[in-house]
Amino acid sequence: MPAGGKGSRTNCSQPTPQKVPNRLISEKSPYLLQHAYNPVDWYPWGQEAFDKARKEDKPIFLSVGYSTCHWCHMMEEESFQNEEIGRLLNEDFVSVKVDREERPDVDKVYMTFVQATSNGGGWPMSVWLTPNLQPFVGGTYFPPEDGLTRVGFRTVLMRIREQWNQNKSTLLENSQRVTAALLARSEISMGDRQLPPSAATMNSRCFQQLDEGYDEEYGGFAEAPKFPTPVILSFLFSYWLSHRLTQDGSRAQQMALHTLKMMANGGIRDHVGQGFHRYSTDRQWHVPHFEKMLYDQAQLTVAYSQAFQISGDEFYSEVAKGILQYVARNLSHRSGGFYSAEDADSPPERGMRPKEGAFYVWTVKEVQQLLPEPVLGATEPLTSGQLLMKHYGLTEAGSISPSQDPKGELQGQNVLTVRYSLELTAARFGLEVEAVRTLLNSGLEKLFQARKHRPKPHLDSKMLAAWNGLMVSGFAVTGAVLGQERLISYAISGAKFLKRHMFDVASGRLMRTCYAGSGGTVEHSNPPCWGFLEDYAFVVRGLLDLYEASQESAWLEWALRLQDTQDRLFWDSRGGGYFCSEAELGAGLPLRLKDDQDGAEPSANSTSAHNLLRLHGFTGHKDWMDKCVCLLTAFSERMRRVPVALPEMVRALSAHQQTLKQIVICGDPQAKDTKALLQCVHSIYIPNKVLILADGDPSSFLSRQLPFLSTLRRLEDQATAYVCENQACSMPITEPCELRKLLHQ
């Protein structure tokens, strides 16, 4: 069983002999299991809870969160473990607990309500529903008791109980009115539009909006908190490629590369164990919110690989490799799947109460004791510990300001942040740059070994098809760019895991979740949780990336079948675009949404637009191009209004209105000259392309899809490349340097 496995959170809701579990004890979700010993009579989302609410005419209290969420832990400890609050909930409400990562449809519907009726959203999300599942009050975290600025959870419960008993008809009317308004506001449809908007206009507006919000000094696009948002960096790279001879194009490249460098030097990156934390609490990327999410690692490794393709600077490729090293070590199941997240909180020492960041922070004393060795050749007395502390900004008082540590849990603690270049640190002590690099790496390794003895953060060992698809892309793209077969093999193992454990052959459907069981086994909920749109979109993208990295056509064939299933289950034949959930799965929910924002993850519709373009390039099937046009048209109004909210879709719009390159390599997959041409293509940043290996077999899968492949020949029995656009192909090319020249035009 993985460390910190299912349901475990040290000193948090641990079962004692007196405690009796509630019905969540039968669930698989680590988040739900964390609440299995609360005195609250929790129900999982389902008919049993809804029937009880209708029969007893009680409002539903819906609590939504996820297992590595710091404020979810706080509310659980403060309110849901409280016997009196538990009694209030049990007497007057039907309490339902939802893991937002298991049921993104439930989360999105009610988050839409909370964001529309309050000052924002976030988790834990607290929503009160009628027995017919219509929301009437919503919020996020509530402290247990009233404070100077916030009303307490107990007070909220008593006020809602009073209103339900005395003004129920008014509440129901308001709820219906708000739901109707949300339904109208959330509708995304082609209407009477025939075509999507101009890509040039949307590109320009999206870039200008990003430029206006850009932080010149530290990179990124907000004051604080600052999120990595790889979709923005991906847009900027694409914008640079199509505007490289302009000032705006150079600016876009500089914005993306500088942001990636500042993030990699900041405390948002774990310099000891690698990988990135979820976001920074300050504008300098210094003090993070310490949880680590799989979807961030997956997207950031692609962003850093692309930065390496564009700049040639190995700084970026080293960061990408570090991320994948972390994922392989900490977030990988032995059968090939990838876990969801690691928590922000852990006990500083065994038996103590968990604190945020405890696993990751360091005192000066700890570092001095671990690294006492003198550094030879320095211009002044110096230990390895002093060198590391200077380079990474550690101080006796700690590097975390009181405003970032309201509970005073991190006094005297330091988050490692690169403060100087290697050259400056070397000059400061009269050392060679390579000697400093070696000393720092050796010091970080000793810190890593020492950190192994600390209590580990809780691991959310749930595996999600969507995030596994993103991670397959991460390993496949980075492995292809760097020419590392070992990384591609991780992607292959991930895809095999998806097919073996998260795919139902009989129905052709993906499952949303599976879980790490004891002894390395894989468990499923019963009945299974079927996949949502994002599961299909991200897995299809992962399979397309894996085909281009491995040239194994079986992955492409599976991608086509999954796209067919996605079209059948989610496509809106009247309005265009894809719904987030199946009609049957979301039965009873007041809204059936189409996700319209590229945020911490790309929206599934934006990803699907890219997938449809690529699938058309691989197969020539006109239906997929037609669907892509309908999808982009359906989202026209949203793109026109706020293009910066959909940078990934604006990128798809640009790809559609440019010409997709079909790069065909004719050759033996195992031959050196074939591999040299393939590696040439992988080393260049070309987002708007498909890469096809034609092995000369007219009965192969791709030859049957694209008959023109059989007309392309090897030149003098050498591996030969063709670059095709608009059904016209270039002259044959056998030399990688000539292919590079053509692709750079």
Offer a concise description of the structure.
The protein has 745 residues and is of the alpha+beta class. Residues 1-8 and 10-14 have low confidence and may be disordered.
Describe this structure in words.
This protein has 27 helices and 21 strands. The protein is an alpha+beta fold. The strands form seven sheets. It has a five-stranded mixed β-sheet with strand order 1-3-2-4-5, sandwiched between helices. It is globular, with a radius of gyration of 27 Å. Residues 1-8 and 10-14 have low confidence and may be disordered. It holds the Pfam family Thioredox_DsbH. Keywords: Developmental protein, Differentiation, Secreted, Spermatogenesis. InterPro entries: 6-hairpin_glycosidase_sf, 6hp_glycosidase-like_sf, Ssp411, Ssp411-like_TRX, Thioredoxin-like_sf. Residues 1-21 are annotated as: Disordered.
Distance between the termini: 52 Å
Instruction: Decide which structural class fits the backbone.
Output: alpha+beta
Overall pLDDT confidence: 93
Largest sheet features: 5 strands, mixed
Secondary structure tally, helices: 27
Classify the oligomer. Answer: single chain
Approximate shape? globular
Radius of gyration: 27 Å
| Beta-strand percent range | 5-15%
Helix content: 40-55%
Low-confidence stretches: 1-8, 10-14
User: Going across the major beta sheet, what is the strand order?
Assistant: 1-3-2-4-5
Number of strands: 21
Region (Disordered): 1-21
Function: May play a role in fertility regulation.
Organism: Balaenoptera acutorostrata
Main location: secreted
